[in-house]
TrEMBL record:
Residues 4-182 form the MobA-like NTP transferase domain. This is Molybdenum cofactor guanylyltransferase. InterPro entries: MobA-like_NTP_Trfase (IPR025877), Molybde_CF_guanTrfase (IPR013482), Nucleotide-diphossugar_trans (IPR029044). GO terms for molecular function: GTP binding; metal ion binding; nucleotidyltransferase activity. Keywords: Cytoplasm, GTP-binding, Magnesium, Metal-binding, Molybdenum cofactor biosynthesis, Nucleotide-binding, Nucleotidyltransferase, Transferase. Gene3D superfamilies: Spore Coat Polysaccharide Biosynthesis Protein SpsA, Chain A (3.90.550.10). It comes from the Archaea.
Amino acid sequence: MPTGAIIAGGRSTRFGDADKSVAELAGVPMIRRVADRLAGADAPVPPGAARASGGDPVVDDLVVNCRPDQREAIAEALEEYPLPIRWALDDEPDRGPLAGIRNACRAAAGEYALVVACDVPFVDPSFAETLLSDAVDADADAAIPRLEDRWFQTTQAVYRADATAAACDRALDRGDGKILAAVEELSVVRIEDAAIRERTTEHTFTNVNTREEFEAAEARLAEHV
């Protein structure tokens, strides 16, 4: 199984003054909900409800990427997490998700890293597992979903850790902070919209950037928990 890598180093400016990664979503810090779904320790909320709650992890361990000032609060949120945790702290904060993915991949113990953002509380672990199969079967450096709007879901994707960290380094050295600047250097399996919808629902990509989206996520959780 891959290393799970949660990217949490952003400033959450649209969320207000609080750090959204540890904001309590229906009583559980949001980053813990994401981490628990990868470990099979969350509530049975779709998509992938059975795998999210069935005690069967889709990752061997977890890497958390965040700023140094976030570590204490996130560590508290992840207390007694059932899988091993390592930290990938941003030595230069505010360089964006590309640097976060680079740092997380550097810390990954497995050949592949399943990268997810900290603000996707309905990430489908069963779908995530298929992404690893896509990458391994093709001997590719990455498996990245792409919805019909043509946007790559680069923070819900599987990456070969060493190759991706090196590609991110080169992009950052060029002064290009876009994730796709690194992705363009990798061999990539693209999972297109039709295949995505056969495997899961669009809720796996629902992210929480604003207070309104946070309230909508709480309402959705209330339907199932």
